[in-house]
């Protein structure tokens, strides 16, 4: 419960990744000499289209690296495939504050790795870099071209260039693809995938779709009972009293955690929210000549619902085990909680309503089979009387929590 503990926890969070398993999966790449090399590729589950990748020729071999200058094509079996292409791409911003008044796409020639979404008589590709997202297509009669969609400004109003609909109607000619299919089509992956799949089905094209292995359930709900090792002290800066140093105390806590898995980077990141009931009751006496009777008692009765909101990062050890680290900001909502100061004869000297500040929490834990978990979490100092000018009431805790995922 000191600075050394905080430092150790932060150090472990920052360095624990080095102990986790690096996932290399069956794949291949084709180099500039048109050699196809079977290998194991590090599956980063790229959110942005990569320009390089790491691979091994065997599980116990050294890690090597290739890049867009040396590789024409690479893929992870059944999960993803990337082609190196020279294409014209419009990088006009789609952010409202950066829109330009030009309706037409502003192209530049670039060499990119495009990710394959559908590959057949009509193929669909995607390029992502931060907020930039562009779709490309190829047919038997055309090279790879960008599907054009652009937002632009006309007299401070947003207008849309949806030329991609005309491109699709002109290039995906079949009896089943009609103007009704593209009239309200949005520039989104789901709708475009559906259209290209429908076209390839109609023309009896042998085609393939890469489907990344995503966790089917991107939402977890867990019950999380545990204990909290609490430390508390309070001080009045306007008095000559010494600090009230309360004894360390262990209390029960109970929470329900909701976790939203982010669908990229192999589901390693998540957003967590955990309403937790906690209580702390304690009493301390202080010998002082400041009050009649020579003794001042401090009674704290503190009950609240803590709501930590934060991010979690998972590191896989093997198929069934993973460790995680998280950081959260805690909002605290207490109910009728007070610190009461009383004299030796039982009369009230002062009554202070608890109105706590927020604080930060750092946690580390272990999860087994996505079902059972164990976590140690350090809660930094929370001032329970932060609305009082002369009072400081520092509450901090180390919690040990056991979790069981309902779904």
TrEMBL record:
Q: Which SUPFAM superfamilies match?
A: Autotransporter
Q: Which InterPro entries match?
A: Autotransporte_beta_dom_sf, Beta-barrel_OMP_2
Instruction: Specify the superkingdom.
Output: Bacteria
Q: Where is the Outer membrane protein beta-barrel domain?
A: 218-379
Pfam family membership, one: OMP_b-brl_2
Name it.
Answer: PorT family protein
Q: Which organism is it from?
A: Paralabilibaculum antarcticum
* Record lineage: Bacteria, Pseudomonadati, Bacteroidota, Bacteroidia, Marinilabiliales
